[in-house]
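Record 1 of the preview.
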Amino acid sequence: MMSDSLAPTPEVAERVRDQLATVERALNNVLVGQESVVSQVLVALIAGGHTLLEGVPGLGKTLLVRTLGQVTGLTFGRVQFTPDLMPGDITGAEVFDRNSGELRFSPGPVFTNLLLADEINRATPRTQSALLEAMQEHTVTAGGHTHPLPEPFFVLATQNPLEMEGTYPLPEAQLDRFLLKVLVPFPPNDVLARIGEQTTGPSQANPKRELEASHLSQAIALSRHVVVAPHVMDYAVNLVSASHPDRSQVPEVVRFVRFGSSPRGLQALLLSAKVVALRAGRWNVAFEDLHAVAAPALRHRLILQFEATAEGISADSLVAKIVDHTRASEEAQRTRGWMRSNVATR
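->
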């Protein structure tokens, strides 16, 4: 709950927007040419969710997460996932204390505000699953005792989509716990030139803290006050429902999708759209806000048929089809309602 001094007033919202804009500029000064990626990561952060970053090596994924910790004032931890990494290497374990003669819990690197899970798909499924409780419950259980994690707690994981040898694809249950999956594209030539100039010159970008952890918690709480009107809620539900082949009227979904989004997909859509609306200066979610976050919120929640892979059909193209169909259905329904109201008034 927000305190009285942090009531959702226009002044508070304006201050939060200014703070987030400052953080975004600081990140963009370091991570050249990835404005869309930075924006999506900030949306996930303010929505209070975890983010999966996917891209080839050298695109600044690790740099983004490290810089995010520097500019937000969050404590930062990093785990380099490897095939021999054990669950206790992440969560911590019970160790023998020679002074007391008893077992005590030694916290692992997960006990931080911002955890970078670097190359998460290189660890075994057993180790990957060690993050499940931490991501969902924000706790770690060891030796029969439950230990709360620091708040706020975020996992930003990276994975390389090219190297398949020696990797373990994330199970659907863990993918579903990431609020957004953000694709990090390879930069165009002009951006490459800027990267080369900035990273090989005599001076390097040195970001400073622009936001306190308490301010971030305030922004998260404030975003929850953004209103979702009933017809917008129905629209979001229709987007998620249209991702299921047994419910969808989109031919491509029926043909290429094996399983559609879980209810967490709806939560991701709504929470992310609320942040987009708040940053745009509105207290209500619009259809356009849902469109803006549909791809990162749903792309990792569609389980495709083998036929889709064989024909080069991506989850993003299917999400675009779902959005186009849902938008057209909404416009047709609105037109029918308008025509009925005109006939009734004559």
